[in-house]
Write a structure and sequence with these properties.
Elements: H1 2-5, H2 9-30, H3 36-42, H4 47-75, H5 77-97, H6 101-129, H7 135-142, H8 145-163, H9 166-186, H10 196-201, H11 204-209, H12 211-241, H13 247-272, H14 274-294, H15 298-325, H16 332-361, H17 363-384, H18 389-396
Helix pairs in contact: 2-6, 2-8, 2-9, 3-4, 4-5, 4-6, 4-16, 5-6, 5-9, 6-16, 7-13, 7-15, 8-13, 12-15, 12-16, 12-17, 13-14, 13-15, 14-15, 14-17, 16-17, 17-18
Length: about 400
């Protein structure tokens, strides 16, 4: 935290308000992780319908993230923070009002806009504000909003679902998000450099196929399928095994693992490079999938949750930092939006496709598929993350620099 002491008072206050808004947003969003699949089941949804509704979240992400990325570059990051928190405030009332599967899916798609807007605006603003020399450290610290929120939200959601009613649960999530709106209003935009030539010539497909974005987006896609499987089916899988374990604690334990690893990884990545920690993160996700595939006890679920959290705490935050290194401020919103869209797509296709697998063969077998896909993501990153195989291996193992990094641009 020493880096924060070197900032002026106005920057520290801006980061503190931004962090608080992020914490409230993630706490609201994470409350649905252990509860919404059970709610859909309680209103008559089948395994595949649960997957379809949960996957609607990522459809909202996919449809709107590229548009929102352009808005972040053109109109500033604060606008996206406001859109994200306002949508997160409204969406819970939709879950409360509707019980039919088609309408719940529409609400879930709408809710997905909140993540698309907030995470794009938040990540881009933090990258804008963080000095290059401590960028990894600052992004890691500021990204702690996600694991802390993912620790608070599921525990709170699980408690409310078991002890009160779904109506009160939805009201609490809306209230948390609304307080986040009040925080987002106080955030100050950073100055955004604009170059019209870049705005005119860099469209979605040009950015996506560029070597600095293409492989990270593919890795995010493959890992996103596994993460989508965890978020959608772990509550139901744990219930089906008969293991006595509050599913809210699975996500809370994962968040604790994510928190601990982010504190350490960010500062280390400024010295050792982003590639090593992305590799470690993918391996952690691989371990989590393997454990879930074989899990049949409380201890197995606890260790799988820790591995899942360590994966998110390293891979996702380090890919975010790597993409900040690879982008200029005037295109950063679009770069983040397009790269993270790979993760969104993985989550979107995971729920309905793996829901079909679960219908046919049970929940356990779907984690065999996610294990294979995560292993493929690891191999792709090790061999294709830089301009050729030798550079890729050195970068991915912390032995070489990222040739696509724009270190001369803050």
């Amino acid at each position: 935290m020493k880096a924060f002491n070197t900032f002026d008072a106005s920057l520290r206050l801006n980061l503190l308000i931004l962090f608080t808004a992020g914490l409230l947003f993630w706490s609201s969003t994470a409350t649905f992780l252990p509860t919404l699949p059970l709610y859909i089941e309680s209103v008559g949804g089948s395994k595949q319908e649960i997957g379809i509704v949960m996957g609607g979240f990522a459809i909202g992400l996919l449809l709107f993230r590229p548009i929102l990325g352009r808005m972040a570059d053109k109109h500033g990051r604060k606008l996206l923070l406001l859109i994200g928190t306002i949508v997160a405030t409204i969406a819970p009332f939709g879950y409360m009002a509707f019980t039919s599967i088609p309408l719940l899916m529409l609400v879930r798609i709408f809710h997905g806009i909140s993540i698309a807007a907030f995470t794009t605006g938040y990540s881009a603003l933090v990258a804008d504000l963080a000095p290059l020399a401590v960028r990894g450290e600052i992004i890691s610290y500021m990204s702690l909003t996600a694991p802390i929120g993912l620790a608070i939200g599921p525990a709170l959601g699980g408690y409310l679902q078991e002890s009160t009613s779904y109506s009160l649960l939805f009201l609490v999530t809306a209230e948390l998000a609304f307080i986040g709106v009040l925080g987002a209003i106080q955030v100050n935009n950073s100055p955004i450099q604009r170059q019209q030539a870049i705005d005119q010539n860099s469209n979605f497909w040009q950015i996506l196929v560029s070597p600095r974005v293409r492989i990270p987006a593919v890795v995010m896609l493959l890992v996103g399928i596994g993460v989508g499987a965890v978020h959608t089916f772990v509550p139901l899988f744990i219930k089906s095994t008969g293991v006595v374990f509050n599913v809210g604690w699975f996500f809370s334990i994962a968040a604790i693992g994510s928190f601990l690893v982010r504190v350490l990884a960010g500062r280390a990545s400024d010295r050792l490079g982003r590639g090593l920690f992305i590799t470690i993160g993918i391996i952690a996700y691989l371990v989590a999938s393997l454990l879930l595939w074989q899990a049949n006890s409380t201890n197995a679920f606890i260790i799988a949750a820790l591995a899942e959290g360590c994966g998110g705490g390293t891979m996702i935050s380090m890919i975010t930092t790597m993409m900040a290194d690879r982008s200029m401020p005037q295109e950063r919103g679009r770069i983040f939006a397009i790269c993270i869209a790979g993760f969104d797509l993985g989550i979107a296709i995971a729920a309905p496709i793996l829901g079909f697998v679960a219908e046919q063969t049970g929940y356990r077998s779907l984690f065999a598929y996610t294990t294979s896909l995560t292993l493929l993501a690891l191999l792709i990153f090790l061999t294709l993350s830089n301009k050729n195989l030798p550079h890729s291996l050195r970068f991915a193992l912390g032995r070489g620099e990222d040739v696509y990094s724009l270190n001369n641009v803050n």
